[in-house]
């Protein structure tokens, strides 16, 4: 998907009022991505342009692209990822909790991090082995280009171990619908972005999130690190100074930026540095 968000509104008026040059930045840049962050990045770009009318942000989103390659070839200035890369500036703007979701009727109460690793490695075939119903486990996997998949595998030490027979679903929305509608209803399990997962639970979708190591998956526990299944939301760019890139980074950390981010992800603690 390719989304253009225009900016230039009121530039002439601002010139007439002779605002100081430091009040805003000017120029254009491309932000590239392919993961679940599209909505929040578009919202940030739109708000950034409103605050900086002489700035133009082009958000390019393609599920099959490699955003960092676009930065390497200077077709984009920022790549949105979940993993840092040697040789590139890495700037964190949020946390994304990774929730373990099952159907609400699944009476499995909780899991340990080790059990999550073994569950998604295919060790557990029946939910009864985890204190749940006597039904088969249906694993739902995510595509490689979903940023939370790499973080999920790395944290659990299961890279390459998720069974090939697992059902592959890309979008969080479709994953949630699948878990809610799978028969028998308590068989499916998946890992999803916490923001989408909490929204589904709050709206009455028949799903639930399993505590991990006795910690509930919630915004406060992700923010302070008690819930350890989480990944950073990162902006990657070249190391050379770029005023527009730096202005966008700082806007993302501002009160307005973090408010936008909190609609989908866990904002950073105010006292921490990215």
Automatic annotation (TrEMBL):
Listed InterPro entries: PBP_domain, Phosphate_ABC_transporter
Pfam families: PBP_like_2
Span of domain PBP: 21-255
Signal sequence range: 1-23
UniProt entry keywords in alphabetical sequence: Signal
Top-rank taxon, per record: Bacteria
Protein name, entry field: Putative Phosphate-binding protein PstS
